[in-house]
Amino acid sequence: MSKIVKVLLLAFLAFSQMACSYINSTDNLDNQVDKLLAQMTLDEKIGQLVQKNGDHPNLDKMIEEGGIGSVLNQVNPDEVLRIQRLAVEESRLGIPLLIARDVIHGFRTILPIPLAQAASWNLTLVEEGARVAATEAASQGVRWSFAPMIDLTRDPRWGRIAEGFGEDPLLNGEFGAAVVRGFQGDSLSNPTSIAACPKHFAAYGWAEGGRDYNTANISESDLYDIVLPPFIKVFEAGAATTMTAFNEINGIPATGHAPLLRDLLRNKWNFQGVVVSDWESVTQMEVHGYTQNPKQSALKAMQATVDMEMASTAYETHLKELIADGKIEEKDIDDAVKRILRLKFELGLFDNPYAHTAEFPELLNPKHLNVAKTMAQESAVLLKNSNRVLPLSDDIKTLVVIGPLADAPHDQLGTWIFDGRKEDAITPLQSLKAMAKEKGIELKYHRALETSRSKNIIGKQAILNDVRRADLVLLFLGEESILSGESHSLANIDLQGAQMELVEMVATVGKPVVATILAGRPVTFERVEPMLDAVLYAWHPGTMAGPAIADLLFGVVSPSGKLPVTFPRHVGQIPIYYNHKRTGKPASNQTWERLDDIPVEAPQLSIGNTSHYLDYGFEPMYPFGYGLSYSSFQISEVKIEGSKLSVGDKLIVSALLTNTGDHEAAEVVQVYTHQLVGSRTRPVKELRAFQKVLLSPDDSAHIKFSINTNDLGFHNPAMEYVVEPGQYHIWVGNSSEHGIQLSFEIIN
Ligand code: GLC
């Protein structure tokens, strides 16, 4: 063999060995990670801890030098391929990039907002939706999504209530885990899988006043019994990463919160995954007044075991100095690098760094769109239906549709839709027109308001003329998508602009009025609620809002959603939530509702001395877990096996559910418990289990729940998780306010 050929052969072998000298399929993951780490310079190690936006001016150079571990917000498949090739084929060690994106509720096929998804109470469907989102995102090269957001909140003023799964720990945990399973699939190495990132760790939804990014002052018991349990659920589901929060928790910014991140998440929960900061939340610790400069911010974040810094530059600028100062050891950096490399190996990026887009299903394919439509149907909550005005009767020959949100293809998609497009969206007006044409119904449309915030109603006379001729009015109310989401909190959550005046104007004609509300949060509309014959709360339902809402209104499918969050009558009632404490003076039957006639010159203590508002009582507009159907259901034969249980026993609850109506429909049977006396006061109700059951008219189903009594505990004053002996109530019903009550005892 000639010398030239021999040299070329050796060079080829050397290259192929170098390019994958740490990839040896017989090696286990840890060995592969260790082998690669051993070859890395300190600069290359620090490079893995750096995440940059896709439009960063020095992106290519930093990638070629091994100075970036992850890129977010680049989803053009050709560009993703180009920068991945730079990393894999041009940098010294060829370590692939983690390509990340906020795939919050769909990628190109936009699903209902997460709050709406929670309203479906259908875990299987939500997992399926996440699978659709993952497949579409992965087809473009994205392999890491910054979702699910499981920041439990009790405050609809907070704009990001749209992005989570409501006020309940069980729902946030279960739906968060469903999204993790959908994103990550059976194996992270599957090219359609993307790493999940449950966020934000932690207590971001506890923002004081519902004002985004605001201080979270939270008791230890609320932190450990309300806010953290959903994170345990998602990590048990195998979430590969998590993200820190912008807020401080009782004075310590989450991104530098060593007790929470290092001591609890890492050491106690043994979380081995990647922790990424939120956007510049590392350097924002200086703004918080927790650090003096970026160098100290880098120290605090590294001490808290934050692996990757999103967007800001503290790590790349100061970690070497911190080692030189003896403030951190290179081993600390090694630990972070290993977690990141491990994730890249688990995603199969070393073997298959490039997305083969052509091999994936089409974006927006019929199957994906059908999942989106089904989810939009199952997420809608029927809040009112007087005289069964819905579903629309076959006798209707003339309809008038009114309101800007009937035809708002961008806004129906909701917040956090980076890759959704309005041109893909089918609006309620489009679908209603099509269905009306099919049925020979005359349909007129009036926008009436430029936007939901407009103060002037356009074309009043024309509207009234058409309402007078119509058999029924379909009003579309709510808020545009810009009014919820990050940094979009509201002090006033009333229906915006002149919408309530619009309702009052239309109601004067006396025709049946059906309101469909599109919003990213609970809005308040008590003033006009009596003028509405029916209210369908559709949230921001995504790409397929139109077909879903039309099917619901015409009765092709019955609404089956239930509220994942309490609806206040007035913003002044906030915080208002179902799993509240009794207090020593709970609202009574007299003070449950608002007091209409407050006597004059009444003696100070003559009016109900209980915890309520004189002007709004105690009652919410609509309670957690509430939602109507086109059919009716009966829950009967509620039984529990054994009324005396030991800790660790299973509490077996059974019931018979019957569809007593004339419409095929699904009911969500919910199980709540209450510990009557505890070493801390206990919530009046806590959701423990639920099942959504579809039944035809006159059909019945025996349903059974198995609840582990270990799950009935809480953190006592010594902050020990305990399940205490004593008397418990249990309810089986179809909302947090209506159920059949039984009792049981935990004896030890
Ligand atoms: C944001 C959000 C976070 C998101 C990140 C990247 O500010 O708080 O949820 O994942 O930036 O877009």
Write the layout of secondary structure elements.
Layout: H1 3-19, H2 29-39, H3 42-48, E1 50-53, H4 59-64, E2 70-72, H5 77-90, E3 98-101, H6 114-120, H7 123-139, E4 144-145, H8 169-184, H9 220-227, H10 229-236, E5 241-243, E6 248-249, E7 252-253, H11 258-268, E8 274-276, H12 284-288, H13 294-303, E9 309-310, H14 314-324, H15 330-346, H16 366-379, E10 381-385, E11 398-402, H17 428-439, E12 442-446, H18 460-469, E13 472-478, H19 499-507, E14 513-518, E15 534-537, H20 545-553, H21 589-592, E16 633-641, E17 644-645, E18 650-659, E19 665-675, E20 686-695, E21 700-708, E22 714-715, E23 721-722, E24 726-733, E25 739-746
Parallel strand pairs: 1-2, 1-9, 2-3, 3-4, 5-8, 11-12, 11-13, 13-14, 14-15, 17-25
Antiparallel strand pairs: 6-7, 10-15, 16-18, 18-21, 19-20, 19-24, 22-23, 24-25
Helix pairs in contact: 2-15, 3-14, 3-15, 6-16, 7-8, 7-16, 8-10, 13-14, 16-20, 17-20
The structure holds alpha-D-glucopyranose.
Description:
It is a single chain. This protein is of the alpha/beta class and 748 residues long. Among the domains are: 201-215 and 227-269 and 276-324, no CATH class; 372-553, 3-Layer(aba) Sandwich (Rossmann fold), CATH 3.40.50; 633-747, Immunoglobulin-like, CATH 2.60.40. The chain is 30% helix and 17% strand. The chain contains 21 helices and 25 strands. The protein has a 6-stranded mixed β-sheet with strand order 10-15-14-13-11-12, with helices on both faces. The protein has a 5-stranded parallel β-sheet with strand order 4-3-2-1-9. It has a 5-stranded mixed β-sheet with strand order 17-25-24-19-20. α6 packs across α16 (366-379), α7 (123-139) packs parallel to α8 and α13 (294-303) packs across α14. Bound molecules: alpha-D-glucopyranose (GLC).
